[in-house]
Amino acid sequence: MSELTQEQRILTAMRKTLAAVIKDVTPPPGMKHPLSEQTIIDVRQCLGLISAREKELAEARGRASERPYYADEPSSAHVVPIAGLGKGKLRN
Fold first, then answer.
1. CB atoms within 10 A of CB 60
2. CA–CA dist 62, 39 (Å, integer)
3. How does pLDDT run across 21-42, given as a tens digit for each residue?
4. Quick check: pTM over 0.85?
């Protein structure tokens, strides 16, 4: 994997910082949010702009399939257990 550019490092740091701030200020269900509605909209716009620029940079480097993902997102990989596999007869 190649080294990230200065712009990519800045975008990553900004995205992670905004996500941490959101996590820190999100109140439990039923409580009033400490941020104004306009601030919430502005933060969403910032995250959208960061995401769009990260996508542009990935496309410019020929890695258009790169995208952020969530840890709880279902994986497209399927695990195949090998414990039951043995040396069977080869088919022709």
1. 9
2. 35
3. 999 999 999 999 899 999 999 9
4. no
